[in-house]
Amino acid sequence: MQALVENKVWTEAELMALPDDGRKYELVEGEIVGGNTGIEHEYIGARLINSFQLCPEAQARHRLWLKRRLLDEVRQSPFA
Fold it and tell me: What is the pTM assigned to this prediction?
């Protein structure tokens, strides 16, 4: 015997009433869908970072930040 499962159509109010479990959910056409934080998300983030690195001003600021951070690490080193 096969059980029939009725697809529930969720409302925005029901979604907002769910307890916070630390995950991100979206309501798509009445269906609750877990937020995408997988490999595709990471790939898009990497592409954004790479596009920022193409900007000369961003590169200069990043180099300055990196130099300051490395100097701070050297100053805090027990061998300095």
Answer: 0.38
pLDDT in tens, 17-28: 988 887 788 888
Two structure tokens written together for 5: 């499962």
The backbone region for 28, taken as left when phi is positive above 0, alpha when psi lies in -120 to 50, beta otherwise, is beta
Query: 54, 62 in Cβ contact below 8 A?
Result: no
Any idea what DSSP says for residue 28? E
Give Cα separations from 69 to 10, 40, 54, 57, 65 (angstroms): 49, 31, 22, 18, 6
For the ranges 2-11, 22-31, 42-51, the lowest mean pLDDT is seen at 2-11
